[in-house]
Amino acid sequence: MFLLKYAETDPRGFLKQLSGGAIIDEIQRAPKLLSYIQTLVDEEQKEGLFILTGSQQLLLLDTITQSLAGRTALLTLYPLSLAELHKNNIARKDLHNQLSAGGYPRIYDRKLNPAEWCANYIATYVERDVRSIKNVGDLSTFTRFIKMCAARSGQLLNLSELGNDCGINHNTAKSWLSVLEASFIIFLLQPHFVNFNKRLIKSPKLYFLDTGVLCYLLNIRDPAAIVTSPHRGQIFETFVMGELVKYYANRGMRAPLYFWRDKTGHEIDCIVDENNKLIPIEIKSGETITGDFFKNLNFWKSLANSQEKRFVVYGGDRHQKREQAEVVSWNALEILCAGLAAK
Q: Domain check: are 62 and 90 in the same one?
């Protein structure tokens, strides 16, 4: 608190002590510093002099955009990817343990109970971060709104239905959803409007970014409970989609990810659209490879008349190359990512 008071009351003196550069955490708590940092950056003409971090994305972005336009590079730190967990030998060996643990670094660094950490994280997020956002007034209703969103992870977004279930109107639901999206709690997967002379679904799908947080909000406290949970498929699909988002984000790229669904119910869980090539990916939580895994991919192939790679990610441990698609284990998603990079 002393340093925060120092930064607020004497920003010049505070920054004078950091003439060689510094990492300043939670910069949104001392927004006055940014205009003084701007002056120093312009004088020094040295890149990377200050690394500014903050957890309140909405407030931080507005402040930086106004004060440091043209002088910053923005990086988003997502939860740890499975590849990063593998690299550091801290990934869970069991699928359900991994789903319930999620990817937030502190859980692994301090060997914390994921459910307890996520409970504190959600409480802190709602009580501290959300309270500072003007368009969220009723925090108890907002908490219920987050849980309602969790129950819909991996599903088509229906704002009117979501709002009605929470007792809020359509516009409030839309506004609160944007808060969750800007805070990197959720992301929206847009539909791909490839023209196959079919009426297509136009609503996006909602996903949580971290399955540990998702499991907590779904009241799953024990990894074994995922096995019999009616949300098991949604949790697994959320996990795979989150890994794909992190794969592109960690390379400084916007994720070219979509889904495809027509009005008759045919669906491809994920379409990677890059360089005019469409790579379909099906996501199946089952541990046994069956013919149903390839049904929608075969339909897609007949419509698209494409020879591009096709993938299935599933909850089992074996990797297979079949005529219909390459089947990738949940624990070897690097194979999928390598396949996307080599397309």
A: no
Contacts 24+ apart (CB under 8 A), 176-183: 176/135, 176/136, 176/142, 176/145, 177/149, 177/206, 179/58, 179/130, 179/133, 179/135, 179/136, 180/146, 180/149, 182/57, 182/58, 182/61, 183/57, 183/58, 183/125, 183/129
Backbone angles phi, psi at 280, to 5 degrees: -85, 140
Q: Is the dihedral of CA 261, 266, 271, 277 positive or negative?
A: negative
The reply to whether 52 and 138 lie within a common domain is no
The secondary element (H helix, E strand) that includes residue 281 is strand 277-284
Residues 123 and 200 in one domain: yes
pLDDT in tens, 132-179: 665 677 888 999 999 999 999 999 999 999 999 999 999 999 989 988
Structural domain boundaries enclosing 28 = 2-67
For residues 150, 155, 159, 162, the Cα torsion angle rounded to the nearest 10 degrees is -40
**CA-to-CA distance for 28 and 182, rounded, in angstroms?**
15
Domain match, 209 and 171 both: yes
Residue 72: inside a domain, yes or no?
A: no
Name the residue among 77, 92, 117, 79 with its Cα closest to residue 221. 117
Structure tokens belonging to residue 25: 């955490």
User: What's the pTM value of the predicted model, to 2 decimals?
Assistant: 0.89
What token pair was written down for 165?
A: 């279930």
- Counting the structural domains of the chain, the total is 2
**Of 99, 91, 144, nearest in space to 122 by CA:** 144
Counting Cα atoms < 13 Å in the Cβ hemisphere of 314 gives: 21
DSSP secondary structure code for residue 341 in this structure: H
Dump pLDDT digits (tens) for 213-247: 999 999 999 999 999 999 999 999 999 999 999 99
Encoded tokens for 225? 């409970």
Which of the 8 DSSP states describes residue 276? Answer: T
Task: Please tell me the distance from the alpha carbon of residue 336 to that of residue 332, in angstroms, as a whole number.
Answer: 8
Helix ranges, 68-219 (H) = 82-87, 95-101, 105-109, 114-124, 139-151, 159-166, 170-182, 211-217
Sheet of 186-189, strand order: 155-156, 205-208, 186-189
